[in-house]
Amino acid sequence: MKNDNSNVTNGSRRAFLKRAGSLSLASVAAPWLINLSALADASAATTGEYKALVCIFLSGGNDQANTLVPYDSGNHTLYQRYRPSFAYSRQQLAAGALASENTALDSAGFAHDYALPPALAPLLALFNEKRLGVMLNMGTLVEPTTKQQYTGKSVRLPSKLFSHNDQQSIWQSSFPEGAASGWGGRMGDLFQSNNQNKVFSNISLAGNAVFLSGNSAMQYHVSIDGPVKMEALRDPLFGSAACSAALRTLISEPRDNIFESEYNRINKRALESEELLSSSLASAARLNTIFPANNPLAKQLQMVARMISIAPALGVKRQIFYVTLNGFDNHYSLLAPHTHLLGQLGMAMSAFYSATAELNVANDVTSFTASEFGRTLSANTNGGTDHGWGGMQFVMGGAVKGKRFYGNAPILANDGPDDVGQGRLLPTMSIEQFAATLGGWFGVSDSDLLEVLPNLRNFSASARKLDFV
């Protein structure tokens, strides 16, 4: 006898698909509205030689104005006026002045000069060697947005602006907190079939990150010392190797029950991956590059370099890495902690580039900084800065068209065209455009980029890539 509920079920399915089709026309869609079938079809994309992307996330919201400091006389005077208690003097900045091959222009056509603060001195040589580029006024955007559109609420804006969790998620995934996948993970979806060991496609040295989560690709967690061992098998069980062997068999052998079988399959894969990574790292040649001590970011990037060195042994041609440096939420007494963090950042990035050059893969590894938002240009009453919007980022690697600025320089003016309040910069460059440029270099086709980055279609085709690689 036919079940009468079938018509209801089919009708509900048709209604669901109709709603999904309508919703997909909106630029800000839920994560599940990404075209999963298109990603699956594209996952057979071919790759050539090895390439890696390395995301360096500066957690807390990096203060852009004390990272890339206005240096020309007029803008430096404005910069000091906004933050008199912790602004760098021009004398302090002189050694770090950036002699770019192009001129940083604002939307009115005026030129801006910039300098790196003393703590970022290690990056100056990379900039001069054309291995480092600077992104100006970049942030989360749904579509191109002017201040008039922002104040008139006539455009779609990122959800919950100035919120740490949501802006971190939007930066990493294009969606607010609760997103199921990130753009790094979705790029991993496209290429994991070309990796002999798919498990090593997306690798985090900083715990769970939505950036690395794909629709099929999974993120593999690694510590600064190597693979994260299964807790129950970290040491001999009850002091007995035999007990550990028995436990290993129990948690990895096939089972009749479908749930038990899947659980054991995952355990087996984890154990085998751990063994392969451990043995490959143990047999790898020692890096001569010296990474700075007492530097958490340097330790993570050193492990990334070691993993890149064993990519052939792991059977991978495309990898995406995620590392973090915490502590950038500087509402109070910004100068000392921020200077310390920038020192760690500069030394770690410089050492990592040297390691890629030592491994002869500098042209195949592109690293970039990221942070959930920039900070207010105006100082608060506590000698710090508050949550902002647009910020600046670095991109580094042998393939980078360095010693150049990209995007529009922000106009430093109270309530000016780039100020939406308290010196919060209205971004003129979107994360989608930045990610699309990286993705194109990584091997993602233009059509697939529209699936990986759902807001990208809101930007004109000629403006979707920034030409920094």
Automatic annotation (TrEMBL):
<dbReference type="Pfam" id="PF07394">
    <property type="entry name" value="DUF1501"/>
</dbReference>
<dbReference type="InterPro" id="IPR010869">
    <property type="entry name" value="DUF1501"/>
</dbReference>
<protein>
    <submittedName>
        <fullName>DUF1501 domain-containing protein</fullName>
    </submittedName>
</protein>
<keyword id="KW-0732">Signal</keyword>
<feature type="signal peptide">
    <location>
        <begin position="1"/>
        <end position="40"/>
    </location>
</feature>
<dbReference type="InterPro" id="IPR006311">
    <property type="entry name" value="TAT_signal"/>
</dbReference>
